[in-house]
Every structure is written in C-alpha cells, then in structure tokens.
Amino acid sequence: MGGKRNFIKTRYRGVYYRESLTRQHAGKPDHCFVVWFADQQGKGHWHTVGWLSDGITEKSALGKRQELIQQLALGNTPGKQIKLTVGEAVKAYEEWARAEGKSIDKELSRYDKHLRHALHSLRIEIVTGAILTQLKSRLLVELAPGSVHHCFAFIRRAINHAISEGLYRGENPVASGKSGKFKMPQVQNCGERFFTPEEANLLLAELKCRSPQVHDMSLLSLKTGLRATEIFSIRGQDVRKATKEIFFTAKNGRRQSVHAPGDIIDILLAYKRKPGEFIFQATNGGPLLWGISDSFTRAVDKLKFNEGISDRRNRVWFHTWRHTFASWLAQSGKMTLHEIKEMLRHERIEMTERYSHLIPGHQASRLDIIDDTLKMGRKADEE
C-alpha cells in the first residue's frame, strides 16, 4: 500500500477504510475502502478497492475480497503476471492511484510524451540499464535534469507498485542507489536567486494585471513561504480567520498549518469558496493539476528577469517566492537559523543552512579574526 495508513475496521471481516484528508463526500471526509487477505503461504496482502464517492461500499468491497480469495483457492495468485510490460505496470499504477485519490495526470502526460514510444510495449524483464541510459541521454538534450528525473521516478514507482501487488516478480530495472544499476539524473534545483524588494513589487504589479489569481498565489508564497503544491491544496474550510491560520497538505502528504497576515486571510476568504472547494482553481473550475499558469512566465519574460541567464539556480520561477521569503528573513537579522527552519518547515537544519550566509555578520565579522591576528603579529615584531 505504500506509506503508513490509519485503517478503520468495518463490520465485515478483512474490509477497512481510511478517511481522506482532502476529499469530501456528502459534507464529510470521503472513505477509501481497502481489503486484506492472506495467500497460501500466509503472507498478507492489501488491495485498494475504491472510494465511497465513486460508488464503492462496504458490501462491494467485501465482494472484491471474496473474489480475490476465490482466485487464490483456484491456485491463481490475483493478477500475477511474469511477462508484464511497462505499459501494463503504468496502467495498474494509474488505476490504484486514482482509487487512492492521487492526481497523476501530469506524470501520465509526461510519460506519454517522453517515454511511451520507447518503453510502453517492452516487458519489464528485458528493460536493461543500457536501454534506460540511452533514453536518459536523449531526454537530457531537450529536458532539464529535474524533468528527466521525474520521468524515470514515475516509471520506478509504477514498477514498484506492480511488484508490491504481486503483478510482477523480478527486479526493478529503474532501481537506483546501492541495489540498482541505473543512475538517475543529478538534479540541482537549489535556487540561489531571490527577489530584491523592487523586483518583487514590479512582478506583483505585472501579475495583478495579467492574472489576479497568480498574483494572489505569489503574494501568499512570499508572505508565508508556502510551496506551489501546498497552495493548490488549500480549500475553503482551511482558512481560519479567528486564528489567522491556513491549513494545507504539505510536501510529505501530511496536514500542516502556517500563520498568515490578516491581509492574506482576507484575500483568500474573498474567493468565497465552499468548505470543500479549492481556493485556487483551474479555468474549468477544477483543481490546478498542471502547475502555475503561463501568466507567471510571461510576466517574468516581460520584465526580463531571466534574460541571458541559463543556470536554473539563478533563474526566476515560482519557487523564487519561497526562496525570497527565507532570504529576507535571514537578511533581517531578527531571526536565528533554527527559527527560519521552523518557518520553512524543513525537516533537517542542513536544508536551512543555505541561508546562513545572508544573516548579517554571520561570516563577514569572523573574517576580522584573520586581520586582527595579523595585526597582533606585526605589533609583536615592532616591539
């Protein structure tokens, strides 16, 4: 099933559900039904059946469990395939992800555009490191390392899912690290660029004319440090005016909250969303699945912030707002590194140390130690 889940028992043996942190059904948290069964060797298996909002009930989940157990009794491991193709693994992963309420449209689009032609019909066991490395080299000519990394990470997750569900027996050819032979592209997304106050005001003014929604998301990120994906997850029920808090789904999938200035709270409440509706929505009224609108890029291009800059670390992108939030906090001299860590919600202090050089006097004052020592030496010689 992947990750730690809190399952709640139903009245039927082996049938459980978990409550969604983001999906709503009939004014309450949606339920995702899962079943548990053991194979002939006594090994337990979890199987995701689907959501209550999609018509799945306790009774239909029980029926699926009985079907899986019946397959075992007939000597058939449910879904067991030796000659599974990459495309079949992707399809199985897509079905599971949608049942779990995960949005993978962007990953599927990337797969269709860059990987399908080369891998879709290949059986997993014949996919070699050489095939993957050659494909990686071709993609790196046209895509950034981060994008190529996302492509292969999606395939790796799909095959890992097939293995965990018993659809495929064998090694994952996209496995990396000590146990794998394939090397994922090295990604260096650590941005060094942050806005000056003048640049921030210019960009906000330009965005306000082009897209009020992108302007509001930008101002929200600048004033709270929220990531784009975290901003996308905010619903009407997540904005608390009394405590000036905003709740959201963090990068690690957990529910977190940040405090925000009153003007930001008012901006979000002005959208007048229902409790279960996303604050920021696509043009069709649905959730934002494809990232920040091109309005942001067009505004940056008009202001020529990226003109002549090819190094991604020094280019402006939406994440620059979060980087600016942290950089301005460090430059203020009013916060310690540990306080900035808490504001950014970093798991490790090493992630925050990249801002340490911006804290006034952090390094510059220590350089005086060398000069003072030299002066002491000259004074001793003179005496």
Low-confidence stretches: none
Number of domains: 3
Order of H and E elements? EEEEHHHHHHHHHEEEHHHHHH
Supply the helix-strand structural class.
alpha+beta
The CATH topology of the largest domain is what? hpI Integrase, Chain A
Shape: globular
CATH class bucket of the largest domain: Mainly Alpha
Mean pLDDT, to the nearest integer, reads 86
Largest sheet: 4 strands, antiparallel
- Number of extended strands: 7
Structure description:
- With 383 residues, this protein is α+β, with helices and mostly antiparallel strands.
- The protein has 3 domains: 8-73; 86-164; 197-332, hpI Integrase, Chain A (Orthogonal Bundle), CATH 1.10.443.10.
- It has helices at 58-73, 86-99, 105-114, 116-119, 129-142, 145-164, 197-210, 212-224, 228-232, 262-269, 294-303, 320-332, 337-344, 349-352, 364-382; strands at 8-9, 15-25, 28-38, 44-51, 239-240, 245-249, 255-259.
- The strands form 2 sheets. A 4-stranded antiparallel sheet has the order 1-2-3-4. Strands 5-6-7 form a 3-stranded antiparallel sheet.
- Helix 3 packs across helix 6.
- The longest helix has 20 residues, at 145-164.
- The chain is globular, with a radius of gyration of 26 Å.
- The mean pLDDT is 86.
Layout of helices and strands:
Blueprint: E1 8-9, E2 15-25, E3 28-38, E4 44-51, H1 58-73, H2 86-99, H3 105-114, H4 116-119, H5 129-142, H6 145-164, H7 197-210, H8 212-224, H9 228-232, E5 239-240, E6 245-249, E7 255-259, H10 262-269, H11 294-303, H12 320-332, H13 337-344, H14 349-352, H15 364-382
Antiparallel strand pairs: 1-2, 2-3, 3-4, 5-6, 6-7
Helix pairs in contact: 2-6, 3-6, 7-8, 7-11, 8-12
